[in-house]
Amino acid sequence: MALIRLHQVAKTYSRGAHTITALRDIDLEVEKGEFLSIMGPSGSGKSSLMHILGCLDTPSQGRFYLEGVDVSSLDRDALAQIRNEKIGFVFQQFYLLPRLSALENVEMPLLYTRLAASWRPVRARQALAQVGLAGREEHLPSELSGGEQQRVAIARALINNPVLLLADEPTGNLDTATGLEIMALFQHLNQEQGLTIILVTHDPDIAAFTSRLVMLRDGLMISDRPNPAAQVKLARS
Ligand SMILES: Nc1ncnc2c1ncn2[C@@H]1O[C@H](COP(=O)(O)OP(=O)(O)OP(=O)(O)O)[C@@H](O)[C@H]1O
Ligand SMILES: [Mg+2]
Questions:
Q1: pLDDT in tens, 178-213
Q2: Which residues does ligand 1 sit against, CB inside 6 Å?
Q3: Closest listed ligand to the CA of 216
Q4: Distance (Å, rounded) from C-alpha 53 to C-alpha 215?
Q5: Beta carbons within 10 angstroms of residue 66's beta carbon
Q6: Whole-model pTM?
Q7: How far apart are CA 75 and CA 80, in angstroms?
Q8: Which of 3, 15, 106, 117 is 20 to 30 A removed from 142 (C-alpha atoms)?
Q9: Substitution candidate for ligand 1 out of 9, 12, 26, 46 with most atoms within 8 A of CB
Q10: Burial of 61 (C-beta count, 10 Å sphere; 0-12/13-18/19+)
Q11: Structural domains in the chain plus CATH codes
């Protein structure tokens, strides 16, 4: 069973009298353990697709199955529960709370789970170590570099052991070298821990790290191909 299956998904937004078609005829299957990038010009529907995959929004037409469950018709509460349990999000902006330490930022999603309070910092420390930030637990976001802040955001996204990590332009606010470090981290999480990762990028050098490339244009999927060269990149780093 595929982790993700989109069948004839369409997304339209209405703005007053206008209807905007952001996605149409999208068929996509993603297996557990894949590392995939979505590329395409501005306005091609990349974020709209990520919002559906992340259960932040539902398709206007078609079906979305996550682990075999049809989530396209679930209500807001059911979607929120799936998001909390199964999906981690990373964005271009890091969205860290400025007055909280790295550790406290990473702990935040655990407040909505049943994990005992005494275990939260233990688990958050593990997640920070996973992204190479052991020793930085007490730093405020303002005391960390951009790349380190994005690592904190990645640790926060990983804290509930999601089956799917979604990243919309995760390197968009970083310089080239730092962006490549973040990609090496994603590649490591994918290869070593089998984490399924889907990311959006404008940058072919970033997409080169992923083993599958999907292209959107005007809301249509215009190509979907494997990228065997991604394996070579890991071997070199
Ligand atoms: N909430 C919304 N309401 C109305 N129209 C929207 C909404 N979100 C997106 N759109 C429209 O849907 C289309 C696709 O937008 P989307 O944000 O998915 O593109 P994108 O590929 O992520 O672009 P970018 O690279 O600029 O982030 C665009 O025409 C956009 O204006
Ligand atoms: Mg976008």
A1: 999 999 999 999 999 999 999 999 999 999 999 999
A2: 13, 15, 20, 22, 40, 42-48
A3: 1
A4: 16
A5: 23
A6: 0.94
A7: 9
A8: 117
A9: 46
A10: middle
A11: 4-236 (3.40.50.300)
